[in-house]
Amino acid sequence: MFALYCTLNRLENKGKTMLDIKQIRENPQEVEKKLQTKEEGVSVQNILKLDGEIRSLKIEAEELKNIRNQSAKEVGEKKRQGEDVTLLLKSMEGAKEKISTLDHKCNELEAQLKFELGCLPNLPEEGIKASLDPADNVEIKTFGEKPSFSFEPKNHLELNEKLHLFDFKRGAKIGGSGWPAYRGMGARLEWALINFMIDTHVANGFEQWIPPLLGRSDILFGSAHLPKFEDQLFKLRDKDHDLYLIPTSEAVLNGIHYDEILKEEELPLKYTAYTPCFRREAGAAGAGERGLIRTHQFNKVEIFCVTRPEESEKIYNEMVESAETILQALNIHYRSMLLVTGDMSFASAKTIDLEVWLPGQNRYYEVSSISNCTDFQARRSKIRFKRGEGKPELAHTLNGSGLATSRLMVALLENNQQEDGSVTIPPVLHKYLGGVSQLGCSPAGSAD
User: Fold this and answer.
1) Cβ neighbour number for residue 228 with a 10 Å cutoff
2) Is 366 marked as a binding-site residue?
3) Which residues bind L-serine (predicted)?
């Protein structure tokens, strides 16, 4: 974490902040109370202390600069009159050294302030239920019904024993636990899901991108994955590179317009991208987390938007609808959950999770998390827009999984399994599989 602190200290655009420091100055108790609904124990007291020290140092330095400038005028005047300026020059030299010391101290404190501000989460939107317990999440919608079986349903690992869609042992041999390998129809089905989702989002008005899979520290700082989640990221560091493998394409899609001023008529920008995603922290171990449920590498189609603040909620609803369209087309039972403050992501002001039912685990799992980050990422990334000849304003950014394929694959297999261990493939995927409609049996139109 110290290395990251030093990296952030070297970042350009030193004026950028995360939460608005003015808001913290003016309403510290209110801001702190809201933040504590997301993270217990969060405090803004040291931030206020640092901010006060920085402002005092700047005032002192400015006063000394004024005195120095006035002394410089006096030196010129005395020289013209042939008077001795030795004491004045000595005084100016002392002021210069003092100003340098104050500026250096101020820079150090500003870097520390920036780091601490960067560790504060976004403020939750008004009306979001305040709770640190995910059990308090609010169900706002369901689609379909849980499947009923006349037999004991298998989980995806048991189904894989016959279908041979994944090779977890050989994946672990290559990269260790949490690095899955897809094979045969498993690889084809994964690719079919990705193509189907991209086609759906493009039809819904999103522009497809193929972004880099690595990003600089300032880009991931802008998306709010740094400094908070430094320990969860994979890094590439050598004499030529200092980069992070992306935990989600949200990070680099947000980086597309890093430090840009957009025209109002360009907005909204609606992007979609497929990337593999890499996360060091694979979560808690246990029977319910095996196989594809939680891994270090997984595939995801992302949707990401940049918009004007007044359009933010409208675009948010469009994103939720686009993600839901996929689950509905696959005819997979899911529920939409409005997350409480403590279960939202670090950068989010409002989040809806789409959770699919997994019969093999006998529980719901999230396959999409759609978040409105308001101006939080835009402030960190300096993503702005102008209305005509007006002053630049911060845009709003929104992101969502559209969807994460690993758990979606599990849902597809477990919800469509047959008693003989075969799996029926939803019709919307048939064209992506050359007409294959079933896995695990040999009649025409199916695959072993």
Assistant:
1) 16
2) yes
3) 248-250, 302, 401
Residues 186 and 287 in one domain: yes
Domain ends where: 58, 85, 118? 118
Whether residues 18 and 149 share a domain: the answer is no
CA-wise closest residue to 319 among 203, 399, 252 = 399
Same domain assignment for residues 270 and 396: yes
Neighbours of 16 (CB within 10 A): 18
Pair (82, 164) in one structural domain: no
Q: Out of 118, 142, 160, pick the residue that ends a domain.
A: 118
The pTM score is 0.88
Q: Of 188, 216, 279, 379, which residue is the catalytic one? A: 279
Residue 302 annotated in ligand binding: yes
Which residues are 369's β-sheet partners? 353
Q: How many folded domains does the chain comprise?
A: 2
Say what the pLDDT of residue 294 is: 82
> DSSP E strands: which ranges in 308-422?
334-338, 350-358, 363-372, 383-386, 393-394, 396-404
pLDDT mean values, one per 10 residues, the chain (448 residues)? 43 52 91 94 93 92 82 72 72 81 91 90 94 96 95 94 93 89 96 98 98 96 93 92 96 97 97 95 56 88 98 97 98 98 96 96 94 96 95 97 94 96 97 94 51
Phi, psi angles (nearest 5°) of residue 432: -80, -10
- Give the CATH number, domain containing residue 40: 1.10.287.40
Annotated catalytic residue within 131, 366, 393, 437: 366
Q: Is 216 annotated as a binding residue?
A: no
Determine the pLDDT at residue 289. 64
Q: Which of 294, 379, 380, 384 is catalytic?
A: 294
- 369 assigned to active site: yes
To the query of whether residue 80 is one of the catalytic residues in this protein, the response is no
Residue 63, annotated as binding a ligand: no
- The active-site residue out of 223, 348, 369, 406 is 369
The answer on whether 126 is annotated among ligand-binding residues is no
Given 188, 380, 384, 407, the catalytic residue: 407
Q: Is 68 annotated as belonging to a binding site?
A: no
Q: Is 393 annotated as a binding residue?
A: no
Q: Are residues 99 and 234 in the same domain?
A: no
Is 237 a catalytic site residue?
Answer: no
Domain residues for the domain of 40 are 12-118
Q: Are residues 88 and 220 in the same domain?
A: no
**The pLDDT of residue 72:** 73
Question: CATH number of the domain that 408 lies in?
Answer: 3.30.930.10
